[in-house]
């Protein structure tokens, strides 16, 4: 390279540096944002909508009383400090913005224009409030069940789903996300979109007992479940689950308390899955029908979750760690609102935004298969339902 070429290269580098220099900010605070305290959505809307409980519930996805209780729990954690430069954003506004984001599925830029806050400020509010919602609600709304809790769950499953000794229903769903930076194909699933997986166990009241969040979209239900801390504790008998007891008055064999799942989960003495195959006997068909009556509670729980918190209706476009935080927060809020405000039956009929996780393959243990036969015998004798034969034909 001669002197002339070197001079040209040097000149091009100088020009590139000048063009890449960071531009000075046009405004310290944009004029649109300066009027937040007089024209922002929170200022003109919050006090008015509180006067109309049904409208408030539709906007914030919870009742006014539930909002106030949650605000009291969060205030010590999300209250900022006023400075000489500007007053801090109130905890009421932070919570209101976060619930709207989770409940409507809107984007940061939508909240930026309506609440007149910077996009980076909105993002920081969402991250902060979601983190502390999970911190304050996880032990209150997703506590580790005691022996008495397990017995109550089993009693309610028997009452509502006619399935004795059942302490939960398990399933997993894909949560759509925008491809995380530098993630390769880790989050790319068999349905050809990017996702992380929410694995959950629920009771018969459509409340979550346990959740596992953040597994990559390429994984399957059984792999996630067997790698979870819950499964390890379940296998090691560290969950205070009651001792096995008979389900039949004529058969004295003690039957363990079980969790029901679909074909993705391996059959053990603690997990019940349906019989596989197409040419099934009547007894096996009846067992599958009765198991599906219990297992539908987890599908309905996912439906209530997705219809209440519509952030799940679209791919979530945030960092992977915030995705996990958002999912955990929505599950905690699901239990919180379900306990205080109930649910709409229509929400249990569809699961928008979620996709099924592919089935893995796990062999049934001999002991698990024998207990499944005990349940199948019970469902065709003293535990039979008057309509079950018509439901399998």
UniProtKB/TrEMBL annotation:
Keyword terms: Hydrolase, Metal-binding, Nuclease, Nucleus
Gene Ontology molecular function terms on file: hydrolase activity; metal ion binding; nuclease activity
Protein localization: Nucleus
A GO cellular-component term linked to this record: nucleus
Chief location: nucleus
Cofactor(s) needed for function: a divalent metal cation
DDE Tnp4 domain residues: 170-335
Family named by the database record: Belongs to the HARBI1 family.
UniProt-recorded name of the protein: DDE Tnp4 domain-containing protein
Native source species: Parnassius mnemosyne
């Amino acid at each position: 390279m001669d002197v002339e070429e070197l001079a040209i290269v040097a000149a091009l580098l100088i020009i590139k540096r000048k063009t890449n220099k960071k531009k000075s900010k046009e405004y310290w605070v944009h004029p649109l944002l300066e009027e937040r305290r007089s024209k922002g959505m929170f200022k003109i809307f919050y006090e008015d909508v509180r006067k109309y409980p049904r409208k408030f519930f539709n906007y914030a996805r919870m009742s006014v009383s539930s909002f106030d209780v949650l605000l009291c729990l969060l205030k010590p954690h999300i209250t900022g400090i006023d400075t000489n430069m500007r007053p801090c954003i109130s905890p009421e506004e932070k919570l209101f913005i976060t619930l709207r984001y989770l409940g409507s599925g809107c984007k940061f830029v939508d909240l930026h224009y309506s609440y007149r806050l910077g996009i980076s400020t909105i993002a920081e509010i969402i991250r902060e409030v979601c983190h502390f919602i999970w911190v304050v609600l996880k032990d209150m709304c997703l506590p580790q069940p005691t022996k008495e809790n397990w017995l109550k769950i089993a009693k309610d499953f028997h009452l509502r789903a006619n399935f004795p000794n059942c302490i939960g229903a398990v399933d997993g769903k894909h949560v759509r996300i925008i491809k995380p930076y530098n993630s390769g194909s880790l989050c790319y699933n068999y349905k050809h979109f990017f996702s992380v997986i929410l694995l959950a166990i629920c009771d018969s009241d459509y409340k979550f007992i346990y959740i596992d969040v953040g597994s990559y979209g390429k994984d399957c239900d059984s792999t996630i479940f067997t790698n979870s801390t819950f499964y390890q504790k379940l296998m090691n008998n560290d969950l205070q689950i009651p001792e096995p007891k008979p389900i039949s008055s004529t058969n004295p064999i003690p039957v363990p308390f079980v969790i029901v799942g679909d074909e993705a989960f391996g059959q053990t003495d603690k997990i019940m899955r349906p019989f596989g195959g197409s040419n099934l006997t009547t007894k096996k068909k009846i067992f599958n029908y009765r198991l599906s009556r219990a297992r539908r509670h987890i599908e309905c729980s996912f439906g209530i979750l997705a219809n209440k918190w519509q952030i799940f209706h679209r791919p979530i476009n945030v960092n992977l760690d915030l995705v996990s935080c958002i999912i955990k927060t929505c599950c905690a809020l699901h239990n919180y609102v379900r306990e205080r405000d109930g649910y709409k039956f229509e929400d249990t009929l569809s699961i928008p935004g979620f996709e099924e996780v592919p089935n893995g393959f796990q062999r049934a243990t001999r002991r698990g298969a024998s207990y499944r036969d005990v349940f199948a015998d019970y469902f065709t004798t003293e535990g039979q339902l008057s309509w079950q034969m018509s439901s399998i034909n």
